[in-house]
Amino acid sequence: MAVQICFLLSWALFCSTAMLLAIFLKHRKGCGKSDRKLPPGEMGLPWIGETAYFYRSQRGNQLFEEFVQPRVAKYGKIFKTRLLGSPTIIVNGAEANRFFLSNEFKLVISSWPTTSVQLMGINSIMEKQGEQHRFLREIIATSLGPAGLEILVPKICDSVQLYLDKNWNVRDEISLFHSAKALTFTIVLVCLLGLNFEPGTLSTFERVLEGVFAAPVSFPGSKLSRAKKARREIKEMLIKVVREKRKEMESGLVGDERLLFTRFVSGMIRGEISEEEVIDNVVLLVFAAHDTTSFAIAMTFKMLAEHPDCHYLLLQEHDDIMSRRRPGENLTLEDTKKMKYTWQVARESMRLFPPIFGSFRKAIADIEYEGFTIPKGWKVLWTTYGTHYNEEYFKDPLTFNPRRFEEPIPPYAYLPFGGGPRICAGNQLAKLNILIFIHYVVTRYNWSLLCPDEQITMDPLPFPSHGMPIKVSLKSS
Ligand code: HEM
To answer: N or C: lower Cβ tally within 10 Å for the chain?
Structure first.
């Protein structure tokens, strides 16, 4: 009996030791696997990680200076952290931008916060992958190709002039940022898509946009619940418009295929795209264009105000273009191509003040990069500042020097519009919007900043905290 008990005890001891050893070895192997090649960096507290530091520096528009740069100095261009529960690798530099952006769909896919997806809709282009993404981009790109742009120019000119006559001629103090927003909204909805809208639609859209990056908590009165309500209103409005358009086109009324909305509805009639896809992509286009283009315009004017020599050169370019046109005649696409210096000024402003800090991707496979492993499921954040502010690519990076764009820029070093398969689908429209707006403002108005030391805030997109107030008066001739 004693021998049996002894045997059982020894057997139990042997089994538990073996089990503990197996757990220990497995744990060690696991740690080894995840630690072995992970990039350096701190993961911070459980779940929350370094989110608090990230948000704090973002709010003060110091995300690069206070969060990214000190970590680059400590760990190098690639480092790990944890943001909002997700292990994240932040990458900087042209080579990293090229690697991650051009491997979209193969190694990474874009990754947006849940609230953004809920408000833009799961059918928008930003949520599409592979073939479905290519198909939607083709529809959008056709309206923004050379033929589409040719038609857009006079429409944008009309919208800008009408807006300025109505709003700027009767006031001497204007919020430049809000003017740019109102105009961008009209240009996307009316000029690009071909939709008309009721007064008040802009503020409904803006309520949606305010929730796009809000905290994912919805209670009565919260940003997110207000945004969701506004999104429902927009959906109802757009369903009506889509169905009317479809009925018209099915009853034989030929739509103007040069307008993006007509192309969307044609695709719907042919069964290639659903009603939800049309609605979600209209909302996405407004969102993608709105704060980005307006911020680019606002910062270009700020740079012009701070660099009168650049303003002088730019004005000469526009006076010259104007002198070749009959009074009241609209600009043409050819005229916008002559605005070379103006585009250099705008590009330099977007280099120093990129409207988009960078954006998130998610690894869809274990990725080997620069001797490190980025495990499947981890997020990757590429940044514009990582190259825009780097001496390696831009001499005296903090100096405003539009002429630097006369020299070729290394690939993937200048990325206000991103890169790879998800490069901004609206970059040519943004360019026209910026150039044409500048043309009419500088040739018609004397203007000056009312708040030259205005702070730039980020939430999470950057904006001038007081809306960039300016003083304007009509030029005498
Ligand atoms: C100065 C103005 C603009 C800037 C700085 C800008 C910037 C960007 C950037 C950086 C991306 C890539 C995001 C990523 O990689 O995750 C992007 C994507 C996109 N942008 Fe723009 N954008 C601007 C204006 C516009 C306009 C006017 C439109 C159209 C009306 C537009 C439509 C889009 C679309 C549809 C995408 C998604 C492309 C895709 O997923 O394939 N953007 N934009």
So the answer is: C
In short, whether 420's Cβ falls inside 6 Å of ligand 1 is no
Return the HEC string of the chain.
CHHHHHHHHHHHHHHHHHHHHHHHHHHHHHHHHHHHCCCCECCCECCCECHHHHHHHHHCCCHHHHHHHHHHHHHCCEEEEEECCEEEEEECCHHHHHHHHHCECCCEEECCCHHHHHHHCCCCHHHCCHHHHHHHHHHHHHHCCHHHHHHHHHHHHHHHHHHHHHHCCCCCEEEHHHHHHHHHHHHHHHHHHCCCCCCCHHHHHHHHHHHCCCCCCCCCCCHHHHHHHHHHHHHHHHHHHHHHHHHHHHCCCCCCCCCHHHHHHHHHHCCCCCHHHHHHHHHHHHHHHHHHHHHHHHHHHHHHHHCHHHHHHHHHHHHHHHHCCCCCCCCCHHHHHCCHHHHHHHHHHHHHCCCCCEEEEEECCCEEECCEEECCCCEEEEECHHHHCCCCCCCCCCCCCHHHHHCCCCCCCCCCCCCHHHCCCCHHHHHHHHHHHHHHHHHHEEEEECCCCCCEEECCCEEECCCCEEEEEECCC
Known binder of ligand: residue 157?
no
Atom 24 of ligand 1, residue of closest alpha carbon? 289
Whether 288 is in the pocket of ligand 1, judged by its Cβ within 6 Å, is: yes
Q: How far is the CA of 299 from the centre of ligand 1 (A)?
A: 18
68 lines ligand 1 (CB under 6 A): no
pLDDT tens digits, one per residue of 311-345: 999 999 999 999 999 988 999 999 999 999 999 99
Average the pLDDT over each of 95-99, 137-141, 217-221, 306-310 and give the range with the smallest value: 217-221
Q: What CATH fold (topology level) applies to the domain 39-121+357-415?
A: 3.30.43
Tell me the per-residue pLDDT of 411-461, one tens digit each, with 9 for 90 and over.
999 999 999 999 999 999 999 999 999 999 999 999 999 999 999 998 889
Q: Report the atom number in ligand 1 closest to the C-alpha of 423.
A: 12
Lowest model confidence (mean pLDDT) among 8-22, 31-45, 243-257: 8-22
Atom of ligand 1 nearest to the CA of 137: 41
Domain assignments of the chain as residue spans, ordered by start: 39-121+357-415
User: Ligand 1 pocket check: which of 129, 286, 424, 438 to mutate, most ligand atoms within 8 Å of Cβ?
Assistant: 424
How far, in Å, from the CA of 285 to the mean position of ligand 1? 8
**CA of residue 425 to ligand 1 center, whole Å:** 6
